[in-house]
């Protein structure tokens, strides 16, 4: 019954999760699950860079410029290190957190949702209550679309079939460091292994740990995302919706 339909195709960079792992190598060995449940796909951040990084971990709160300044003022260096960040309330775009970490010289990012940000942190998890389980992972994109919106490889022009495309390392909207979302349960294991100064109170959440900023734990982050230019179709109804 639709009288006029147009299908417009664009070829865009559309990443899928590939081979992704997070493993603690010191002070003890431990492997992150990276799944809400056994049936779920591995968690990943779309547009995050692929890479293989082994480095000490530093906890940087919500990953704001002020949080990185706080660490620098106390002599905690994030350069060449893996930065553990919290999703923040009020909301701050995850891609800007990765951008801030990259600007400060971090080698990779791990990001988790703390139970304290879900309201009743001590209440029952879903389905018995409104709180998300500790295994929940918040997926999403981390592209720097605030620098160049749209397809990162065609900034400022249409991603039509055959269009000119930038190489990945020339696209300013794509991170140059790996980024992986992890669950609160996995974040707790890393936080428990951190040493160094106590984190400021606004950084601390509801996990059973002392919330120190590190270092003290060494982690290997390995990301091999499946990046390819793939077609997407937009279906446009050109008829009269009021008939």
Write the layout of secondary structure elements.
Blueprint: E1 5-13, E2 16-26, E3 30-31, E4 45-46, E5 51-59, H1 65-73, E6 82-86, H2 94-103, E7 108-112, E8 140-141, E9 179-181, H3 184-192, E10 218-226, E11 229-237
Folded structure, characterized:
There is one protein chain. The protein has 243 residues and is α/β, with parallel strands linked by helices. The protein contains three helices and eleven strands. The protein has helices at 65-73, 94-103, 184-192; strands spanning 5-13, 16-26, 30-31, 45-46, 51-59, 82-86, 108-112, 140-141, 179-181, 218-226, 229-237. It has a seven-stranded mixed beta sheet with strand order 3-2-10-5-6-7-9, sandwiched between helices. Strands 1-11 form a two-stranded antiparallel ribbon. The longest helix is centred in the middle third of the chain and has 10 residues, at 94-103. The chain is globular.
């Amino acid at each position: 019954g639709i009288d006029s339909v147009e299908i417009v195709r664009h070829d865009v960079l559309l990443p899928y999760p590939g081979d992704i792992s997070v493993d603690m190598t010191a002070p003890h060995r431990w492997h992150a699950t990276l799944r809400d449940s056994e049936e779920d796909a591995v968690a990943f951040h779309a547009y995050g860079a692929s890479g293989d990084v082994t480095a000490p971990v530093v906890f940087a709160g919500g990953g704001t410029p002020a949080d990185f300044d706080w660490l620098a003022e106390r002599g905690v260096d994030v350069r060449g290190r893996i930065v553990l960040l919290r999703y923040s309330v009020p909301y701050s775009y995850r891609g800007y957190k990765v951008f801030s970490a990259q600007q400060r010289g971090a080698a990779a990012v791990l990001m988790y949702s703390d139970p304290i940000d879900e309201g009743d942190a001590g209440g029952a998890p879903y389905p018995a209550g409104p709180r998300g389980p500790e295994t929940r992972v918040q997926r999403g994109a981390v592209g720097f679309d605030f620098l160049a919106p749209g397809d990162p490889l065609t900034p400022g022009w249409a991603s039509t079939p055959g269009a000119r495309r930038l190489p990945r390392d020339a696209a300013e909207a794509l991170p140059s460091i790996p980024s992986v979302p992890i669950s609160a349960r996995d974040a707790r294991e890393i936080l428990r292994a951190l040493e160094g100064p106590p984190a400021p109170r606004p950084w601390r959440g509801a996990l059973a740990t002392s919330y120190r900023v590190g270092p003290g734990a060494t982690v290997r982050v390995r990301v091999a995302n499946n990046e390819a230019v793939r077609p997407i179709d937009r279906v446009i109804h050109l008829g009269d919706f009021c008939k």
